[in-house]
Amino acid sequence: MKKFLIVLLVIVVILGLVTLVLPSEISVERSALINASPSTVFEEVNVLKNWDHWSPWKEKDPTIKNTYSSVPETGVGSWTKWTSEEEGGGKLTILESEEPTHIKNQLDFEGMGTSYGEWDFKATENGTEVTWSFTGDMGYLGRIFPGLLMDGMIGPEFEKGLANLKEHCESKAEKAEVQVEEVTIEQPMWFVGIRDSVNTNDMKTIHGKIYGEISAFMQEKGIKQIAAPLSIFHVWPESGQGTVHLEIGIPVQDSVETTGRITMGKVMPGKTVMTTHFGLYDNLGATHMLLNEWMRANNVTVAGAPWEVYVTDPGNEPDTSKWQTQIFYPVQ
Predict the structure, then answer these.
(1) Of the candidate ranges 138-142, 178-182, 207-211, the one whose mean pLDDT is the lowest
(2) Where would you tag: which of 59, 162, 228, 240 has the fewest CB atoms within 10 A of its CB?
(3) Domain harbouring 150, CATH code
(4) 230 shares its domain with 302
């Protein structure tokens, strides 16, 4: 018996020493192919409230309760906190959001430190290849339960989550409808505008800056705005990420004299197809995708740069679900 206890003690000591030299960082990764556009899948991850549609943990633990950031509601800086009677609490914050290709988030678990999750969305012929990965320094726990064991614990949860996400997105894609109107622009529409280029990551800030510059010019010259502001997208990168060449403007009655980088632009007469997007600007990409799918299905050929008209002034309407944006594509 004494010999057995000595051997057991030696084994415990050896295991303790081994855990001190084993790496504490773990990583888990799973992928799935989803028959939906990258924008559709991206939206389900980038809008944290949408996680309720597919989260494996919500399904597993009904005691989980979430609260969400109000500003911002989506993308970089948005967060959700949760409490659970079974699993404790924590917080998830989006650190990077590159529509529609990449998201990185930070996870802070009560008593377990900080970890990171990443999402990559790659367009393929059959839909979107989605990769969900997790890395974190689990401290002593990570040494006791090394990589392979943790992969076996977390991996199935990721697989379940991706399966739920696939089912939800594919069902959503099947049900998705876009109301399209054929609109003929009868008369040219002048606008005071600025043409610029911007990285897709900075799209959220450029509009306010340029509209402020144009508005100041118009106020100084006593020029009256006659319709909702617009943006024309002359060049959009095929990958969804990169440099966008756009023209931002405010419609006016007629051509006026301009200075500096402020110029006159014109929306030309012709045939267009138009749909109305309701909700946050972050989700406009999905509506563009639906309109493009409608055009392909109906053999409609695009004949120029699309533009958006921002019908609702966010300063006058706090309910984001009521924000209206009209999307126009000139067609043959």
Answers:
(1) 138-142
(2) 59
(3) 3.30.530.20
(4) yes
209 and 287 assigned to the same domain: yes
HEC assignment per residue over 213-267: HHHHHHHHHCCCCCCCCEEEEEECCCCCCCEEEEEEEEECCCCCCCCCCCEEEEE
Q: Tell me the CATH number at 274.
A: 3.20.80.10
Query: What kind and span of H or E run contains 32?
Result: strand 25-34
> What does the pLDDT look like over 13-42, one tens digit per residue?
444 544 455 555 778 999 999 988 888 899
Residue where one domain finishes, among candidates 148, 174, 200: 174
Quote the pTM value: 0.56
- pLDDT for 293-321, tens place per residue? 889 888 999 999 999 999 999 889 888 88
Same structural domain, 309 and 246: yes
Quick count: other Cβ atoms within 10 Å of Cβ 177?
7
Same domain? For 152 and 190 the reply is no
User: Among 174, 199, 217, where does a domain finish?
Assistant: 174
Of residues 251, 45, 273, the one with CA closest to residue 166 = 45
Q: What b/e readout covers 21-51, taking b as 16+ CB neighbours within 10 angstroms?
A: eeebebebebebebebbbbbbbbbbbbbeeb
Residues 224-262 as b/e (b if ≥16 CB within 10 A, e otherwise) read ebeebbbbbeeebeeebeeebebbbbbbbeeeeebeeeb
User: 303: which 2 tokens?
Assistant: 């004949």
Do residue 112 and residue 195 come from a single domain? no
Distance between CA atoms of residues 311 and 72, nearest Å: 21
Omega of the bond prior to 330 within 30 degrees of 0, cis?
Answer: no
